[in-house]
Design brief:
Elements (H helix, E strand, L loop, with lengths): L2 H18 L3 H7 L14 E8 L6 H22 L5 E8 L4 H14 L3 E3 L4 H13 L3 E4 L14 E3 L4 H16 L3 E7 L3 H16 L3 E8 L7 H10 L3 E5 L5 H11 L5 E3 L4 H7 L7 E4 L10 H12 L5 H19 L5 H9 L4 E3 L2 E5 L5 E2 L3 E6 L2 E4 L2
Parallel strand pairs: 1-2, 1-3, 3-4, 4-5, 6-7, 6-8, 8-9
Antiparallel strand pairs: 10-14, 11-12, 12-13, 14-15
Length: 387
Amino acid sequence: MSIKKIITFAFLSVIIGLIAGLSACERVSQITQPTTSQMAEPSGEISIGVVLPLTGRLADSFGIPISQGFELARSEINAAHPSGTKLNFIIEDDQSTVEGAVEAFNKLIEDGVSVILGPATSSQTEMTFPVAQENQVVAISPTSSARGLSAIGDYVFRVALTTDKLIPPGIEVTQPKLGYQRAATMYDETDLFSTDGDASVQEVLAANEVEVIATETFQSGDTDFSQQLTRIQTLNPDVIFVSCLSPEKPGILMQGHKLGISAPFIVRTLTAADVQAAGAAAEGAITFVGWGAALDTPGNQAFVENYNTKFKIELTNYAARSYATLHILAEAIANAKSSDAASIRDALASIKDLDTILGKFSFNADGDAVYDAKVLIVKDGKLVLFE
């Protein structure tokens, strides 16, 4: 094992150990890096590559919850079949960058894995999925959702609902109830998830004859949104749509609250951690998501209870989607004729109406997820169903 991988694994162990209260011994037993020779079926183990932002700006919002969701699912899957094939992880840090994600994919492919879980963002997925497809390695992103990224080939899949499956039903639900006719939008112009989200919002609003009276932009890493919000405030919109990654969401909500903006904010994929960080400023914010802690989907309440017991931190939909992703992959592996990438690919493509914490789950012809979208609202500091 290289020194760099030893450092990476040690760093991951420290992070999750501190947060989850796991001992160092537990981490060593739960996350291993088998050699290439251990990846064959006779060993009773299947090694799965995992690409995560363990360092950088996305480590807290994406890396920790995704790794915890994977870990909980893996412990359940391996325990459910004590004499069966075990799932092991080979983890690489993408350093919260597109370049780091590409490098991590290439390293895992060189290690001989058949499946890679990740990356986290759409910007990373846009560049890594072609690498997986070219090398005929299965890649499954639990959280990427910009349109069109899975259509490049048959080895790539996504578990998050894509923009075109999330935003139209969200607006269809909220527009009649809130009666908004004049909207403003804000988005991160440097991030694909955000640019695609804003484009879709504007397309759907136009189709519903809602006027977009202002569009403001910012960039990943920005912390001051007061000028954009002040310009929006002067136009008095009925609603404000925000498209960005988690690090910027609490700041936008808090600064909007400080300015006294009364229009509701609709922020796609707002997490419980975002709500906690924004405090009172998040009250009344609405989000379009694929999962919520309050949902009565198959196994969801047991998942929420088990996660809270194990990690004792705020559960987010990123953890939920990674948890669901590994269970979906385990179903495909169980149904596949062998552990090679082509067999797992075919088994994944055949998944239809599988019971998951997300609801009835299927992959469409492009390898994108199909299940019901949800609309949530923050009430008394909690994300609950919008009704």
